[in-house]
Specification:
The protein is an alpha/beta fold and 228 residues long. The chain contains 8 helices and 8 strands; from the N terminus they run E-H-E-H-E-H-E-H-H-E-E-E-E-H-H-H.
Length: 228
């Protein structure tokens, strides 16, 4: 999922995306042990779903349910932390064709906090699929010719039995908004740079990015399928 239509050296990425909900938002209170599939149910085009859970299912469960609804798709995952089982499930989805391509963005501290899990991520997906920055954001993109799902969530890529929230939107402009930011990070780093640099190197890189901000205009966005 790399932009073909932008000069990323000149890109001023906005920090805020705004939109008006046409069909309202579905609210889900999943605090009685519901699975991701039961809590979310069928996805509909242009959906907007907000859910609150007790942590009985994880981000990878959300991803699996959404992939079951969308069919094979390109996936992007931003996470602060990850566990071996969830990393392996993502790799399984890549192997069985549920995921067509995948990229990860992780915090620079992941390597020192969870070195064994970070190494598993590298071993299974390779440096080309990974980038490092200073981040605490957790979100997922699931994109194919029909769907442009954006999942914003408090969940990391691990099981965490405590209150969590998630929001799932089928929104082409919002997906393209995220891809602009992702591509700027991807194109600013050499392969494995973030993993081989010091924490100070990663912090300096982060501070040097996204200095220019412009108002978001969805009419100027390229079709998201052209960005994949």
């Amino acid at each position: 999922m790399v932009s073909k239509n932008k000069n990323l050296n000149d890109l001023g990425v906005p920090g805020v995306y705004k939109r008006t909900l046409a069909g309202g938002r579905a609210l889900i209170r999943a605090v009685r042990g519901e699975s991701a599939a039961k809590a979310i149910g069928d996805l509909k085009p242009d959906c907007e779903i907000f859910g609150f859970t007790k942590g009985q299912f994880s981000c990878i469960d959300l991803i699996e349910h959404c992939l079951n609804e969308t069919g094979p798709a390109d996936v992007f995952i931003a996470t602060w932390s990850a566990a071996a089982g969830d990393i392996q499930r993502a790799h399984k989805f890549l192997g069985n064709g549920k995921i067509k391509s995948i990229r990860f963005l992780v915090d620079y501290s992941f390597q020192s906090r969870k070195p064994e899990f970070c190494q598993e991520l590298i071993d299974l997906f390779g440096y080309e699929a990974l980038r490092v920055t200073v981040t605490h954001a957790k979100y997922v993109l699931i994109i194919n010719e029909k769907w442009n799902l954006v999942i914003r969530t408090s969940m990391n890529l691990n099981y965490n039995p405590r209150f969590e929230n998630f929001e799932i939107s089928d929104d082409k402009a919002m997906a393209a908004f995220h891809i602009e930011i992702i591509d700027e990070i991807w194109n600013s780093q050499e392969r494995a740079e973030g993993f081989k640099g010091t924490p100070g190197d990663n912090k300096r890189k982060f501070r040097s990015q996204f200095r220019e901000a412009t108002a978001f205009d969805s009419s100027e966005m390229t079709d998201v399928r052209d960005l994949i």
